[in-house]
Structures are given as C-alpha cells and as structure tokens.
Specification:
The protein is about 40% helix and about 15% strand. It has about 220 residues and is an alpha/beta fold. It has two domains: about 140 residues, Rossmann fold; about 60 residues. The protein has a six-stranded parallel sheet, sandwiched between helices. Helix 1 packs across helix 3, helix 3 runs parallel beside helix 5 and helix 6 crosses helix 7. The termini are close together.
Length: about 220
C-alpha cells in the first residue's frame, strides 16, 4: 500500500523524460570535444549506464590512463551547455501528472540518474516534470546505479525529515534499474516497452507502458 511513508526513486532518462535520443548524441559530441577518440557509442552495453563511466571508460581507451578526477566537472558544464542548444525534451506520457499527484498526496519522491546534474536540470525544466534539486542524486560522485540510488534515499531522509521509509520503490526503464533495486532489496516499477521482456524475465513484478493509466494501488 502506498502511504506517506513510501519513497519513490525515479530514474530520469526514459523514465520521466523522453530524452535518450537527444542526450546520447550530446554526450558523444562533448566527449569528442574534450579530446577523446574512438568513443564507444554502444552505451546500452556499458558496465554502468552513467556519464561518469562513459567519461572514465573512454578516457582510458584514448590515453591508457585514468581520467583526472576534476574532469567530470568540466564534462558536467559542457553537457549542460550543449544540451541547452537542443529543443526541450518531452515527458514520458503521464509523468508530470503522476509527480503532481504524489505531491498533492504528500508522498515523497526523489531522483537517481546516471546523467550529470546540469544536463539533468535542463531535461527536467524542458519537460515540465516537477523537479526538486535537493533530492537529485547523479553519477557525478557515484559511478554505479546502486551508489546514486542510495544517495537519493539519504538525501530524501534529510529533505523530508525522515529517519527511514517503510517502503522504497525504484522506478526505471532498464534492466540495470531493476538489478540495482534487487541489490538494494527495494521494490521496483518498470516502465516502457524497450526493455520490458528483459525486465520481466529477470523478476520484475510491476510494469507499465507509461503513466497515463498507472494506478498507485496496483503495485505488488
């Protein structure tokens, strides 16, 4: 049962915003702009689906050494600058209405995304999906999804003045989102058709095509 002691942790790209077709060319261009060569654009098969991993992995492919720690901040700035040149991204159908409903019902929610923060803010602003920066966790400091979902939970405890939540539900469009939820032993809601079969085959119990007909009380 969904109550005020439930926390939703939403992925963003493909989960709240229809931004993947716009964002992947942006990150590829910006990685090239900072001097990386022979960039691996098979992002779906990365070990971690995060901007930080894309940077560190492709930097090492180019220079055979680890990326400087501060380079992530330059990439964050450049990604935001480049994405701001693109048309605003759309919401995943029903996302804005769902988050407005959660706010109305005083049900906490947060965001855990593999993207960096400046580009994330631009996506959310363009899509007009409710955005609370205080509960945004990104890959800027955590290369893995498990890491930034945990960070989102910690930020939520502080922001919503809770010591814990009775139920935590991660929401995502990828198998990597499901596996992170399973590792953290929290509930999961899958969304979107692209990875539906993979998610269901790996134990996803809750799935919706989008949020337009989603019923909060339908979660198992």
């Amino acid at each position: 049962m969904i109550t005020k002691d439930t926390l939703f942790v939403f992925d963003i790209d493909g989960t709240l915003t229809d931004s993947i077709p716009t964002y992947l060319p942006v990150i590829t261009k910006v990685l090239a702009d900072i001097g990386l060569q022979n960039i691996d654009t098979d992002y779906d098969n990365y070990l971690h689906h995060t901007d930080l991993y894309a940077l560190e992995y492709n930097y090492e492919r180019t220079f055979n050494k680890k990326a400087p720690a501060n380079l992530r901040y330059e990439l964050d700035h450049l990604l935001g600058k480049e994405l701001s040149k693109c048309n605003p991204v759309s919401e995943i159908p029903g996302a804005r209405s769902l988050l407005l409903k959660l706010q109305e019902m005083q049900i906490p929610f947060a965001y855990g995304t593999g993207a960096f923060p400046k580009a994330t803010a631009i996506k959310m602003e363009g899509s007009q999906v409710p955005f609370i920066p205080e509960v945004l966790a990104t890959s800027l400091h955590n290369i893995s999804r498990v890491g930034f979902v945990k960070e989102a939970i910690q930020k939520s405890e502080e922001y919503y003045n809770r010591t814990s939540f009775d139920n935590i539900i991660a929401v995502g469009d990828g198998l990597w989102d499901l596996k992170a939820a399973q590792e953290l032993d929290i509930s999961f809601l899958g969304i979107g058709t692209k990875n539906r079969e993979a998610m269901l085959d790996n134990g996803c119990k809750n799935w919706v095509e989008d949020y337009r007909k989603f019923d909060l009380n339908s979660l198992k």
